[in-house]
Amino acid sequence: MNTWFQQTALITGASRGIGRAIARQLAGQGMFVYLGYRSDDGAAQHTLDDIHNRDGQAALLRFDVTRQSRCDEAVALVIQQRGRLDILVNNAGVRDDRLFAMMKKPAWDTVLDTHLNGFYHLTRPVVRQMIKQRFGRIINISSAAGQAGNAGQVNYSTAKAGIIGATRALAKEIASRNITVNAVAPGFIDTDMLAGLDPEKIKEQIPAGRLGHPEEVAHVVGFLCSEHAAYVNGQVIGVNGGLL
Ligand code: NAP
To answer: Residue 170 and residue 102: Cα distance in Å, rounded?
Structure first.
């Protein structure tokens, strides 16, 4: 009996930066990839075209991870169209930096809402499906800031550290169902998220002396989704040029 089936992946924040590279990587590994994003239709379409040009399979899925109802609809649509959801990459993210003493509540709320409530809103319905399937791979994009803390980023560091706690706890809950939950913690990666920062100043802090490429994060995610990573669970893997 031929038991091969094409895996289905949902990646948030797939319109740009690290998420776009992850989408290309997973489509290149043969998966059908849903490209989640919030509002930038042009960038998302660019990612989709890129995947199609490489003979990959993908579809756009515009939804805001801060809204529970939209996350529920997105997961329901994937399951209705594909019958299953094998891979979830929680990658969508924002930053709103300032020193903590100056940080107003909206900057705190937006960052925690996107990363932590976003994780809850989307991962819970996905986990319920993965438990039924008895298979799943969840990869959460954390950050070196969540491991070490970063001045000017108390909100972001809090959110990214929270994601590490969620990763470790959830991995223990559902490992017996053949579901792994891991985190990838990038250092400084060359994307729109670094806009407004001086790359030369950043490079001085990095032992490798350069920014990371989105593809360098995507390769690690690709490995975590592969059959070779079946026994890697509850881990946090840094991709940071030796920063930590
Ligand atoms: P980016 O280039 O700024 O892209 C952010 C992505 O997140 C976009 O696709 C955006 O969608 C999406 N997004 C933002 N808020 C959303 C929401 N509420 N709902 C749905 N989608 C939303 O960022 P990046 O650098 O690729 O970062 C990707 C992940 O890596 C983030 O979690 C970030 O914190 C983490 N990270 C980045 C670095 C770095 O140095 N770049 C380092 C460590 C960790 P639209 O295009 O529609 O706005």
So the answer is: 34
**Which domains occur in the chain, in start order?**
8-239 (3.40.50.720)
The residue type of 130 is M
**Catalytic choice (34, 37, 120, 156):** 156
> How is residue 52 written in tokens?
């199609």
Ligand 1: which of 33, 38, 116 to mutate, most ligand atoms within 8 Å of CB?
A: 38
Reported as a pLDDT band with limits 50, 70 and 90, residue 199 is very high
Asked if residue 64 has its Cβ within 6 Å of ligand 1, the reply is yes
The residue assigned the tokens 């009996």 is 1
pLDDT (average), residues 219-232: 98
Distance from C-alpha of 132 to C-alpha of 127, rounded to nearest angstrom: 9
Say how many C-beta atoms besides its own lie within 10 A of residue 140's C-beta: 23
Range 207-236 average pLDDT? 98
Q: Where are the alpha helices (DSSP H) in the chain?
A: 17-28, 41-53, 68-82, 105-112, 118-133, 144-148, 154-174, 199-205, 214-225
Q: Is there an atom of ligand 1 within 6 Å of 73 CB?
A: no
Ligand 1 neighbourhood includes 143 CB (under 6 angstroms): yes
Q: Would you say the pTM of this structure is higher than 0.70?
A: yes
Q: Which atom of ligand 1 is nearest to the CA of 39?
A: 47
Structure tokens, 204: 């001085």
156 is catalytic: yes
